[in-house]
Amino acid sequence: MDKKKLLWKLFISTFYLSMFTFGGGYVIVTLMKKKFVDDYKWISEKEMLNFVAIAQSAPGAIAVNGAIVVGFKLAGFMGVFVSILGTIIPPFIIISLISFAYEAFRDNVWISLMLEGMQAGVGAVVTAVSYEMAKDVVNEKDKTLIIMMVIAFLANAVFNVNVMLIILVSILIGLLQSYLAKREGNEN
């Protein structure tokens, strides 16, 4: 596929995903995995897992960060630009339209009920994302990653440890693990 077609397909894909995704970044990450890994086979599951880790660690919205790393992998800086546009235009349009009609929506019972129903759907999608990501980590058969995943879950869910602290500690452990693996490779 030539670069122009790839960029157009990347824009349309990120635009579509962003336009019809409700519930935040973790929901769009699942759909990006389905589209870019399963359907288009542009990237591998392992790459997607790494991209999600990068997107979570970087400041900013996870949907935009995810689009950035996928766009860069596929088409360099032009891919970044196109995927960012595709990701940010839909929410910008939707929020702009809602702001004009906020007074009408604010007290509407039907809109409130619809949004409450969407919360259940978002919960299901986030659960599915967590399951898929955990399954990928377990399939790696890396004991350190499995232990980190379990400890991170328990630290947040049971002991209410701040997520930023968990991310920072995970980054440090990952860097240390990479350093040790590289050092071991150089010694052999």
Give the count of helical stretches: 8
| Main β sheet profile | none
What is the C-alpha radius of gyration, as a whole number of Å? 19 Å
Give the low-pLDDT segments: none
Q: How far apart are the termini?
A: 40 Å
Question: SSE order in H/E notation?
Answer: HHHHHHHH
Could you estimate the helical fraction of the residues in percent?
over 70%
Overall mean pLDDT stands at 85
* Class computed from helices, strands and strand pairing: mainly alpha
Shape: globular
Number of strands: 0
The proportion of residues in beta strands is under 5%
Summarize the structure.
This is Chromate transporter. The chain has 188 residues and is mainly α. Helices cover 86% and strands 0% of the residues.
Task: Give an overview in words.
With 188 residues, the protein is an all-alpha fold. It has a domain at 3-115. The chain has helices at residues 3-19, 25-39, 45-57, 62-100, 102-106, 109-140, 143-157, 163-187. Helix 2 crosses helix 4 and helix 2 (25-39) crosses helix 6. The longest helix has 39 residues, at 62-100. The protein is globular. The termini are far apart. InterPro entries: CHR_Transporter (IPR052518), Chromate_transpt (IPR003370). It is found in: Cell membrane. Its main location: membrane. Keywords: Cell membrane, Membrane, Transmembrane, Transmembrane helix. It comes from Atopostipes suicloacalis DSM 15692.
Layout of strands and helices, then pairs:
Elements (H helix, E strand, L loop, with lengths): L2 H17 L5 H15 L5 H13 L4 H39 L1 H5 L2 H32 L2 H15 L5 H25 L1
Helix pairs in contact: 1-2, 1-4, 2-4, 2-6, 3-4, 6-7
